[in-house]
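Q: Hi! First time doing this. I have a protein sequence and I read that you can turn it into a structure. Is that right? Here it is:
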Amino acid sequence: MNDSSKPEAGVSVSPYRWVVLALFMLPAIATQVQWITFAPIAKDAAALFTGGRTGAIDLLAIVFMLVYIPVSFPASWCIDKFGLKWGTGIGVIILGLSGFLRIFAPDYTWLLVFQIGCAVGQPFVLNSFTKVAANWFPEKEEALASGLATMSLFIGLLVAMGAGDFVLAHYRANGDPRGGISLLLIIYGIFSLASMVLYLVFVKDKPKTPPNPIAAEKKVSIRVGIRALFRNRDFLYLLCAFFIGLGAFNAISSKIDAIFNRPLDIDPALAPGIVGGLMILGGIFGAVILSALSDRYGKRKLFLVLTMAAAIPLTLLLGYLPSIVPLGIAGFAFGFFLVAALPVGLTYAVEKTHPVPEATSNGILMLSGQVSGILLALFSTWPLSLPCSAWGCFLPSS
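A: Yes, that's right. Below is the predicted 3D structure, encoded as structure tokens:
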């Protein structure tokens, strides 16, 4: 039985698509809360786990990007080989169990081991965005579906950015930051495990009838697909855009506690939570609004150019503005425009490269952002250079 929306000619649209998308969004949220758990509370976590060495705490976030590199292609292969439910489900299981086991980590070494487990599960989820949209949604809703999936990532980031300081504030006042960090690990671990169970029980691979022409196509092998992608001019442009934009966002998120460590008109300890939260909130709105507009008007390239052009000056403003109010506005606008490029770009890649498997194009684009994010996070010794070097400013280190 079809819902009230009008499907394209010759295809049928299942209302269960929204259930599948919602259940997919839960482990997507879990990837982000596990990734960025310690970034906003790096000093507290370092005092507890590493004797004050914040670099080791930064590694807990950076390892997500490091692991993405070797795991991305196997994850895409599994998704293409075994389908949405079980191809992605492999990663959902690894993520759910590893996130839950973080609760019981007795020291930093075990925490890092379980963090690596969460990182292994992440590519299976992130590389499935366009697979969910292509399997279940009509063409006129594909960017919106990818946008909602992207929105879930930033809901996870917003929760992790806000919850860290919020929970620890009470425990710091009582002289027990260890209790606050333990509570965060319990909450995030139970959520990850519950998301895994719901996904495995209720998610279906695809509807009985394809919702769009691309879903009905026979896909080429991943090896043939990769060759085709790197011969496709539009895809190569997209790859460059993801390398720059997504890399900048990943690096900024991983090092958020250090980026605003400069003279401001408020306590520098508050700036990461405020600006980071507004940046992610802007991303949530942008991922949905601009994706829906892209679907409505059938324009992909126009919206991609708009978002990237707006993000360039905004990254510079984040690096230099001295006042929290304009910084907050710049952070919100940065998230709104840059994050919106992600779902629109992923959808554009599927439309321009089919019959290449969706997980293959999705995975390569996401991988490029992880690689550049690692480079920026590891080699940008001056916090202000993180956003600026992403756009080729090459500011000197101090």
